[in-house]
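It is worth pausing here to work through a concrete case rather than discussing structure prediction in the abstract. The textbook approach is simple: state the sequence, then state the predicted structure, then interpret. We follow exactly that order.
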Amino acid sequence: MAKIYYLGDRVSSMLTTSAVRTVTNVYDVAKTFLTFQPMTHKKLQKLCYYAYSWYLTLYGERLFSNRIEAWVHGPVCPDLYHEYKHHGWQEIEVIQELPQSIAENPDVYEFIKEVFDSYGHLNGDELEYLTHMEEPWKEARGDLGDLEPCNEKIKDEVIIRFYRKVLEDEQKD
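Step two, the predicted structure:
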């Protein structure tokens, strides 16, 4: 299987303490992903999760402060779910204009674009499968069955620990 994450040379700024600052909000991150292509709500959720996780791991800051929970179909931000749930399984249309908070921060835009370049070729089901194989989602769900509902928060410490290990393993290749 080909590597599906490539985040440039951003490994050097791995954090050692817990994050406190946030950069933007989940709605603006989602709208930025939607400037690249139309996509399902499921795919949008997973891309936002990966953006949050990698930003937290690489920069020691939360990309957004919205809560991410370990739902049946993978990590979900409930705030974002309620914003786009009316789309159901249909694709959400492309957005033409970048949100102001992203347009004013080209580094964040480039980061979101890198996440999209790494994961955007996968569909929502493939991203769901990928998150189900990863420790942050599995740990938050505990012993729950595959179809049991859960609203447990995916913890930042677990995200950092897991994605740091991914980075370390990548450097060994």
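Step three, interpretation. Confidence is low (pLDDT under 50) at residues 10-20. The two ends are 14 Å apart (CA to CA).
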